[in-house]
Amino acid sequence: MTALAKKAFAPEGSHHTRGRPRDAGKNTAIVNAASRLFLEKGFDGASMDEVARRAGVSKQTVYSHFSSKELLFSESIHAVIVKYHPDIALEKVKDHSLETDLCAVCENYARLLMSEDAMAMFRLLVNAASKGPALADIFWKSGPAYMQAKLQEFLQSWIDRGELEISDTGKASDLLITLVKGKAHFMQSIGLISTVSEEQLQQNVAEATETFLKLYRT
After folding, report:
1. For the chain, what is the domain count?
2. For the whole model, what pTM was predicted?
3. Which terminus of the chain, N or C, has less C-beta within 10 A?
4. Which domain holds residue 29?
């Protein structure tokens, strides 16, 4: 990991670096403002002054919550990702089974991957790649790595129930994510299509879960 990423990334639950109490409302406002600003202007183009202005707080308040722009970037990614936690998807399922739960988790994840904001972030990271992997490293550990860990936990829960037979949940979760993306995600990422229709999204999820279960169902 680069020095920048080491400085910026903190494990779940420890994204902030100061010990003083914080106002939850201001914290949310700062993160929301930063999230939009990063997508609009990129990491280098976003300033802590502008984050403060949009959040309606002072620059000092921003730094009292987040000691660096890198840390704020990390938290803005994590704040989005946690909304797509598998447990949140499962709250909407009435009759739980391997198929229904897997479909719900995959659909939730597909909506994240194919959202306009996710595409904007993908392009931002591609544009920043020539400057080195530091920004991508922060993004990966704050977002995709966290989500993959939660997806592995979900798969393990069905392994423990005897309904899935998987020797490596890391590889299995990688495959599942690839299946969920399908061709539509690639077409969207290069601008061949502007959005993925609801019909296409549902088809991707159905095909992904069907293929996955053929490979790993006991």
Report:
1. 2
2. 0.81
3. C
4. 3-79
